[in-house]
Design goal:
By secondary structure, the protein is an all-alpha fold. It is built from 12 helices and no strands.
Length: 264
């Protein structure tokens, strides 16, 4: 009985703590439907006008499109580079392997402002013009460690006997990767890609130094916040929360299906 009471008290504490941490998000969503422009309580009325205003704001929609473009391209780039890098770390032994692994973690360990300034100097040295493409390269560099660490950790849990059996049956390295390794690390790739997309979507320090004339959504919100929080910002924030929930649910469903298939 004492153990049950202690567990119940602990779970209650955790639930209350999580509710407290998520209060700002609920406040954001509630005020996105407020009839008044001022953030005052109680609400003066319920309206969806700010969502209509949001979809009529061409500058904000353009910034949103730029953020999606940058996040998608940087995620694809990190996966294209990160998956082979994780496989190389897992399968091969080569001189300087430990140093190479530590260097992969360097961008995520450094403050974003250091990465942004460093890449800005490099792009200027090589004559690159700042644009969304330079932002993509900056984000991919900063997020490469996220992909490599997650996929490498999953590869460590894949039994070596599977790839050895595939080789014994006459499969080449590419066939072994497609039919054996890839299905076993699929959920890790999805998780790493989802996390990279979200981190790239709301990245500010690196974007601040590498963007050209085109704004991303975080930069647009940052510039708008200087004049105070507007209801349109609450509305776009609520939509981002909804998008994040959809990604989390989709990732959980895919992981659950993969786990169920493995058990069968």
């Amino acid at each position: 009985m004492k153990r049950l009471a202690a567990d119940s008290a602990f779970m209650t504490f955790v639930c209350l703590l999580m509710a407290f941490l998520y209060i700002p998000i609920w406040v954001l969503i509630i005020f996105s439907f407020n009839d008044s422009r001022s953030l005052t309580w109680p609400l003066s009325g319920f309206t969806t006008h700010w969502y209509e205003t949001l979809f009529a704001n061409e500058a904000l929609l353009a910034a949103l499109g730029n953020s999606v473009y940058v996040a998608f391209c940087s995620t694809v780039l990190t996966l294209v580079v990160g998956i082979p890098a994780a496989l190389a770390l897992h399968k091969y032994s080569f001189p300087g392997k430990t140093i190479f692994r530590r260097l992969l973690l360097l961008p995520i360990a450094l403050p974003g402002i250091v990465t942004g300034i460093s890449m800005l100097n490099a792009f200027r040295l090589f004559g690159f013009h700042l644009s969304l493409e330079t932002v993509i390269l900056g984000h991919a560099t900063a997020l490469l460690a996220v992909v490599v660490t997650q996929i490498f950790a999953r590869l460590q849990r894949v039994p070596k006997s599977l790839s050895e059996a595939s080789s014994d049956l006459g499969a080449g390295a590419f066939q072994t990767f497609i039919y054996v390794t890839l299905p076993n690390i699929k959920t890790a790739i999805i998780g790493a890609g989802t996390l990279s997309f979200v981190l790239s979507f709301d990245e500010i320090p690196v974007t601040f130094f590498l963007t050209g004339r085109d704004n991303t959504l975080p930069m647009y919100i940052y510039s708008t916040m200087r004049r105070g929080v507007t209801p349109e910002i609450n509305a776009i924030g609520s939509l981002i929360v909804l998008m994040s929930l959809i990604l989390i649910i989709a990732s959980a469903v895919i992981t659950l299906r993969d786990t169920t298939a493995r058990r069968k």
